[in-house]
Amino acid sequence: VFDVESDLPLADRVAKLINRLHATLKRLDKTLVVRTFAYEPEEVEGVTDAFAMIDPEIILMSKCVPHDWEVFYPHNLAIGRYADRMHIIEFDPGAEFYGKGHVPYLYTEYLHFRLEYARDRNAYGYVARVERQGNPSAIPGISEGSGLNELNLYAISRFAGDPAVSPEKVWREYVERRVGKGAYVEPLIEALKLT
Length: 195
What we know:
By secondary structure, this protein is of the alpha/beta class. The chain is built from 6 helices and 4 strands, in the order αβαββαβααα.
């Protein structure tokens, strides 16, 4: 929808495509979930503007950031912009650009920050991307080396289930679940935070 010749503005052609897909799927008694993916600011804005023109039955799904997983990006502009529809927010606990699961990249505080923002804007749900193109999964036991980022999955689950839980509590729960209780827990948490 971005690199085509058309008399329609970007938002109009995106909305037209989405609405036609929705109409077809509705006849088949299926629900359409539209996942955004855009890079350039005008693409992001065009797709986001298109959401105002699509049927409210369509479920939106957006990354927590405007496009790929740069942790220093601002929040995705689409989050909370449409109160009349369900919106699912996608997170990357597998850390595609931060070791791809080959090394731990544990960011509990960051996930709390992003989930809190989405929750405050009435996010309907969350989804976690656990790996990318055959790299080790955040889920232990899936493949060789998998599971180094399991804490990120645990954190998303805890924050989604209990908005009052703190990042510090999540770190402690997870580490104690994995290695037990003892004087070594605090130094281990501090070491893991360095990842």
